[in-house]
Amino acid sequence: MSFGPDILVSGRRQIVALSIFLVIQTLGTVFYVGDVIADLREAPASAHFIFEAIVTAALVLGVILGTFALRRTIELLRSQEQALAVARGALSEVIEGQFDAWALTPAERDVGLLALKGLDVAEIAELRGAAQGTVRAQLTRIYSKAGVSGRAQFAAIFVEDLLGGGLKAA
Q1: Annotation: CATH topology of 102-170
Q2: Is the pTM of this model over 0.85?
């Protein structure tokens, strides 16, 4: 299951939508409960009273079930946020461990991390205040130490670690 930022935003939107729905439903329920209590004094055995009492009971049940659904959605979002934080931390540890194993210099670590984030040579050079040729040379040394021929293979090393050994053949 994917726990990326999109699913967290979607989860937050769902919480807001459920909360608004629950507030509106609660207001309707309060109105109907008051109406049923008022009708109870006037005509407790009428068809109108019985219908309103059933609708009010359904609304009360809906508020209760809506509250449980909202609570479950909030708990799910929290667990997804925790899983994302763990995954981010785990990826960071994997990257640092691999950079240690390759004995990357501090400059190579910075360039390697920026490359993994998807920045191109010009962007990395600008961020680091270095010449593009310097960044290309650092990337070449990083790829050599990693035993890969380019950025895609370099990134694939870390993706494979996250996938736990890769995909199973069908």
Answers
A1: Arc Repressor Mutant, subunit A (1.10.10)
A2: no
